[in-house]
Design brief:
The complex is a heterodimer of chains A (469) and B (209). Chain A is 32% helix and 17% strand. Chain A has 469 residues and is an alpha/beta fold. Chain A folds into 3 domains: 8-159, Aconitase, domain 3 (2-Layer Sandwich); 165-236 and 268-284, 3-Layer(aba) Sandwich (Aconitase, Domain 2), CATH 3.40.1060.10; 288-467, Aconitase, domain 3, CATH 3.30.499. A 5-stranded parallel β-sheet of chain A has the order 5-4-3-6-7, sandwiched between helices. Chain A starts with a helix and ends with a helix. Chain B folds into 2 domains: 6-178, Alpha-Beta Barrel (Aconitase, domain 4), CATH 3.20.19; 179-209, no CATH class. Chain B has helices at residues 21-24, 44-47, 89-97, 109-117, 127-139, 169-177, 181-186, 189-202; strands spanning 6-9, 11-14, 48-49, 57-58, 74-77, 101-104, 121-124, 146-149, 154-156, 162-164. A 4-stranded antiparallel β-sheet of chain B has the order 1-8-9-10, with no helix packed on it. In chain B, strands 2-5-6-7 form a 4-stranded parallel β-sheet. Classes of the chains: A alpha/beta (469), B alpha/beta (209). Bound molecules: iron/sulfur cluster (SF4). Residues 62-63, 108, 129, 131, 346-347, 407, 410-411, 428-429 of chain A line the site of iron/sulfur cluster. Iron/sulfur cluster is lined by residues 62-63, 108, 129, 131, 346-347, 407, 410-411, 428-429 of chain A.
């Protein structure tokens, strides 16, 4: 029998098969955050049930905490302090590991869980947060769930899933050096729609995926949910093993050896069956940016906002609505659009390698006077590492704000947000209406494109910026 | 959890595609950890004009604010309904508002499970059928309730047309009997522990101490 990578991890976690075709899977790790994890903990508390294995449960503060320097439990988010306090009290009570404010391990859950070696290849992991699929980048079977499902996993260490179909997306060809994992995933979603991965677990493979460093693989898998996939996953290789070695919760000594032996088996067998395969030639990918309000509204930086599609009236209506919301017209160039803000952060693109790429572009230059530019490192560890190599100075000197780590303005919850009508170039993952502030207009792009655009004050092709120096 | 057997209710067509959970339950409306009382925030950005200001008022254009649909308990939606953020607050808001079933060509996976866990029935019908139902409903919303039968797994349209749907057997039983998923799994606790013992010898490195 030939197995896919996904089959292998799945099969090794099946506790029982149910007769309706679903399986009860063992869940190895659970990560919570104060936004939705608090709801799961509060509901657990009210039910009088207990966490089955607190050692395998971790919690962080990322969504609601402020990212201003000198932050406290007070936040600009309405009701925010309650989420923070409930999370802290219940984490303590339930004896789970909390990365609280002031803890050097604090950060965005999906950044912290690989950074701390909590997520591992061949492990199942859930978090009540849709971007948990990020962790597929190191070969974990990770997926976002709701608060009730999270509570189920806390109490039973299991979750019931119906096995999704499987898709392999192969990235081949030669990639331009300015094209990043973010451009690759936006390109895929633009070609195959925001629902293209619906019902599938997606393995990303091929030479261009293998060539990505671990952090870029996390970016690729991060947006599997924007493709509506159950999750994304990439076969772990020596780059992943080197990345994990010595991380605080990674196995050591003999256990490390055993883990490596097991992890080395985690690759799709030659000839294993996929229900669908998509091949993408990376030579076709340019720096990519979204024009609309769905991640599928993505085009090459040198492209034009597409014409309204005829035929499918639903799609046409949603395009019209998107154009209207974004204040754009069909046929308009995306490059050169004036922006009022630039944001580098989020679980998609806020790791050290992302900040390095941006800093490289910003070095010795100034952000346009018309642009408010903000950099929010994905974790306190990332922030400290960046400061150690002087990246904070580069950002600050260029005119960026340099923040404490957290989700920050990746999403708007009534606290800080970009302003109505403001056009923002952003390294985040969702450009939904109001996602970063009421009536604010978000254009998703790579950190390189965000940095280049911040300098010019317009959406900018980073390739041209390089030429101009 | 509230059982679901049959339901006769007024349907509101909201045939947008990719209705995300940010739209169903805007993040800034999630002000407490509690699941209760969220219905007033359902679709807040669409339902209200100038939300949160002293000029706030109902948006007369939004379907759920229109007279004929005020008592709607069923939603007809476009494909990829409930995509995006995993926030269960979206489903809690729908349930609190009084929605009992949503009919769409496809659903966001996390949203779908969240619906089942909260006694809200997600029904998959093809796009054409939904358009047909929406047209029938729109011509006389009050006089055209949909009849949903989970026992028989079909929707009866206003014109008497019968549209079968499928739901995974386990999910169907959960809804029909109003079961709590945790209680059901707790009965398998021995099997779970047995799995862990075997797994521990196979993947000792996966267990933290
Ligand atoms: S950074 Fe943004 S997308 Fe990522 S977990 Fe936080 S809010 Fe969600």
């Amino acid at each position: 029998m030939k197995y896919t990578l996904f089959d292998k991890v799945w099969n090794d976690h099946v506790v029982t098969q149910q007769n309706d075709g679903s399986s009860l899977l063992h869940i190895d790790r659970i990560f919570l955050h104060e936004r939705t994890g608090s709801a799961a903990l509060a509901s657990l508390e009210a039910s009088g049930r207990k966490i089955k294995n607190p050692l395998h449960v971790f919690c962080t503060m990322d969504h609601i905490v402020d990212t201003f320097p000198g932050r406290t439990d007070q936040t600009t988010m309405p009701g925010g302090t309650e989420f923070i306090k409930v999370t802290r009290d219940l984490s303590l009570k339930e004896n789970i590991t909390l990365f609280d404010l002031g803890d050097v391990r604090q950060g965005i859950s999906h950044v912290v869980s690989t950074e701390q070696g909590i997520a591992l290849p061949g492990c199942t992991m859930i978090c009540p947060d849709s971007h948990t699929c990020t962790l597929g980048g190191i070969g974990a079977l990770a997926t976002g769930v709701g608060s009730s499902e999270c509570e189920h996993a806390l109490v039973t260490e299991t979750l019931k899933f119906t096995k999704p179909k499987q898709m392999r997306v192969i990235f081949t060809g030669e990639k331009q050096s300015s094209v990043t994992a973010k451009d690759m995933i936006l390109h895929l979603i633009a070609l195959h729609s925001a629902a293209g991965g619906s019902g599938y677990a997606v393995e990303f493979a091929g030479p261009m995926v293998e060539s990505l460093d671990v952090e870029a693989r996390l970016t690729l898998c991060n947006m599997a949910v924007e493709f509506s996939a159950f999750t994304g996953i990439i076969a772990p290789d020596t780059k992943v093993f080197e990345y994990l070695k010595g991380r605080p919760y990674a196995p050591v000594d003999e256990l490390w050896e055993q883990a490596m032996e097991y992890w080395s088996t985690l690759a799709t067998d030659q000839g294993a069956h996929f229900d669908r395969e998509i091949i993408i030639d990376c030579a076709d990918i340019a720096p990519t940016v979204t024009w609309g309000t769905s991640p599928q509204h993505a085009i090459s930086i040198d492209g034009q906002v597409p014409a309204l599609i005829s035929g499918d009236s639903d799609s046409r209506r949603s395009m019209e609505q998107a154009l209207n919301y974004m204040g754009l017209e069909s046929g308009q160039s995306i490059e050169g659009l004036p922006i009022q803000a630039a944001f580098i952060g989020s679980c998609t693109n806020s790791r050290l390698s992302d900040l390095r790429i941006a800093a490289d572009i910003l070095k010795g230059r100034k952000v346009s006077a018309n642009v408010r530019a903000i950099c929010v490192p994905g974790s306190t560890q990332v922030k400290l590492a960046a400061e150690k190599e002087g990246l904070d100075r580069i950002f600050l000197d260029a005119g960026f704000e340099w923040r404490e780590s957290g989700c920050s303005m990746c999403f708007y919850a009534g606290g800080e947000g970009f302003l109505s009508g403001e056009r923002v170039i952003t390294s985040t993952n969702r450009n939904f209406e109001g996602r970063q502030g009421p009536k604010c207009r978000s254009h998703l792009a790579s950190p390189a494109t965000v940095a280049a655009s911040a300098l010019n004050g317009t959406i900018t092709d980073v390739r041209k910026l390089e030429h101009s120096t | 959890m509230k059982k679901f057997n049959t339901h006769l209710g007024i349907a509101a067509p909201l045939l947008k595609i990719n209705i995300d959970t940010d739209a169903i339950m805007p993040s800034r409306e999630m002000k407490t950890v509690s699941k209760m009382g969220l219905g007033k925030s359902l679709f807040a950005n669409w339902r209200f004009l100038d939300r949160g200001t002293d000029k706030e008022k109902l948006n007369p254009e939004f379907i759920l604010n229109q007279e004929e649909y005020l008592s709607a308990t069923v939603l007809l939606a476009g494909r990829n309904m409930g995509c995006g953020s995993s926030r269960e607050f979206a489903v809690w808001a729908l349930v609190d508002y009084g929605i009992r079933a949503i009919i769409a060509p496809s659903f966001g996976a996390i949203f779908f499970t969240n619906c089942i866990r909260n006694g809200l029935l997600p029904i998959v019908l093809d796009e054409k059928t939904i358009t047909v139902l929406a047209d029938q409903v729109a011509s006389n919303p009050q006089g055209s309730p949909l009849n949903i039968d989970l026992e028989g797994c079909h929707v009866t349209g206003p014109d008497g047309g019968i549209y079968p749907f499928e739901l995974p057997a386990g999910d169907r039983v959960m809804l029909l009997e109003g079961l709590d998923a945790i209680d059901v799994t707790m009965k398998l606790n021995d099997a779970i522990n047995a799995f862990k013992t075997t797994d521990h010898s196979k993947r000792p490195w996966a267990y933290l101490r």
